[in-house]
């Protein structure tokens, strides 16, 4: 049970990074990217192949993120002059082209060249070879505890801000009451999940397993990326991105280089997705081109839409909800619908999440935490 929770926590953290990258591109800048998995693919393969060549994994992941950012630059220079719908078509095609090229290309795996269709295995994974002593294990547990405390404090601050609004704006009492209650429920939900992950992490770190070390590393990177994005998006740079999303003609009239800001958004979002790809590869321990199907991009879109576009906390919430649903239906549906085959159960799960998404679009098109006035679906 503990190992399974660690696995789910790593997967959720990895896709939270992926969702943050997409939210930057679409939620804050209004760029429709249907090939987001292409950035993830490049980050994964570049990191893994460099690691097999003896490159330190920290350098490998930075190079992988840089190559993914370079892809964003290439896409931007070649497609941002196009209209939004054409940009979507080009990106989904490019994401699939990257996967097919890797599938049909020979890759430099160590000292040999191996066909991409056979995948890449037996590559280095962070913190596998170390055998931490008791002091290092306590230090790692302390880092995990610190992350948990910071997260709880952030959730408390988030709920408290809604409570202050509730006390201040008496004229719109019902609106702010609903906001406060929703934040309180979400915080309790996330807090309970955090507690389960924390307990599993402490157990696995004390009785050290490599996956526990990978979880700690992934959570640290996720916390750092989230923190820096929040600061950047509240700065003048972030406000320009929002202005471009709402009406880029206004931003142009104010003297902003809209094209360059879009390039920056694509590159930074792509780099974040590249980092997510590295963690995805490290968790799988073996990667194949079919691990990077277009479905991953649309799963990421579901996460961002569910949580609310233009809201980083919403992206994290949408990812948690998506994998909670995914896990619960995988575990309990076979026990409820015993007459259905595995293929039918898989189709049912996809159909049901589609129904949830349709209902969400009708009832609350801005997502759980999104703001309706900032909705980008109609841009």
TrEMBL record:
Any one GO CC term of the record: plasma membrane
Keyword terms, alphabetized: Cell membrane, Membrane, Transmembrane, Transmembrane helix
PANTHER family linked to this entry: HIGH-AFFINITY BRANCHED-CHAIN AMINO ACID TRANSPORT PROTEIN BRAE (PTHR30482:SF10), HIGH-AFFINITY BRANCHED-CHAIN AMINO ACID TRANSPORT SYSTEM PERMEASE (PTHR30482)
UniProt GO MF annotations: branched-chain amino acid transmembrane transporter activity
TM region(s), chain numbering: 6-24, 31-52, 58-77, 84-102, 134-159, 180-206, 212-229, 266-289, 301-325, 346-363
Membrane topology: Multi-pass membrane protein
InterPro entries per record: ABC_transp_permease, LivM-like
Subcellular location: Cell membrane
Organism: Richelia intracellularis HH01
Protein name: Branched-chain amino acid transport system permease protein LivM (TC 3.A.1.4.1)
The organism's place on the tree of life at top rank: Bacteria
């Amino acid at each position: 049970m503990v190992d399974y929770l660690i696995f789910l926590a790593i997967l959720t953290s990895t896709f939270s990074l992926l969702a943050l990258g997409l939210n930057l591109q679409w939620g804050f800048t209004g760029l429709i990217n249907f090939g987001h998995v292409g950035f993830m693919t490049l980050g994964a393969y570049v990191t893994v192949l460099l690691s097999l060549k003896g490159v330190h994994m920290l350098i490998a992941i930075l190079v992988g993120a840089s190559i993914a950012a370079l892809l964003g630059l290439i896409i931007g220079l070649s497609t941002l002059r196009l209209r939004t719908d054409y940009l979507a078509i080009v990106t989904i095609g490019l994401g699939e082209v990257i996967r097919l090229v890797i599938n049909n290309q020979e890759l430099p795996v160590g000292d040999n060249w191996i066909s991409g269709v056979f995948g890449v295995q037996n590559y280095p994974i962070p913190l596998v070879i170390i055998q931490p002593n008791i002091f290092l294990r306590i230090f790692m547990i302390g880092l995990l505890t610190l992350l948990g405390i910071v997260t709880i404090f952030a959730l408390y601050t988030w709920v408290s801000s809604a409570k202050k609004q509730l006390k201040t704006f008496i004229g719109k009492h019902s609106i702010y009451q609903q906001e406060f209650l929703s934040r309180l429920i979400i915080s309790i939900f996330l807090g309970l999940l955090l507690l389960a992950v924390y307990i599993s992490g402490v157990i696995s770190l004390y009785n050290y397993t490599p996956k526990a070390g990978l979880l700690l590393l992934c959570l640290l990177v996720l916390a750092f990326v989230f923190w820096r994005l929040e600061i950047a998006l509240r700065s003048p740079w972030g406000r320009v991105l929002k202005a471009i999303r709402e009406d880029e003609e206004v931003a142009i009239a104010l003297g902003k280089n809209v094209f360059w800001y879009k390039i920056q958004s694509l590159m930074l979002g792509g780099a974040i997705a590249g980092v997510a790809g590295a963690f995805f590869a490290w968790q799988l321990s073996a990667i194949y081109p079919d691990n990077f199907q277009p479905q991953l991009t649309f799963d990421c879109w579901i996460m961002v839409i569910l949580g609310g576009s233009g809201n980083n906390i919403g992206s994290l919430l949408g990812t948690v909800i998506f994998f909670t649903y995914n896990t619960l239906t995988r575990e309990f549906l076979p026990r409820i619908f015993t007459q259905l085959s595995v293929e039918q159960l898989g189709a049912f799960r996809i159909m049901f999440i589609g129904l949830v998404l349709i209902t969400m679009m009708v009832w609350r098109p801005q997502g759980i935490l999104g703001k309706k006035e900032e909705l980008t679906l109609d841009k």
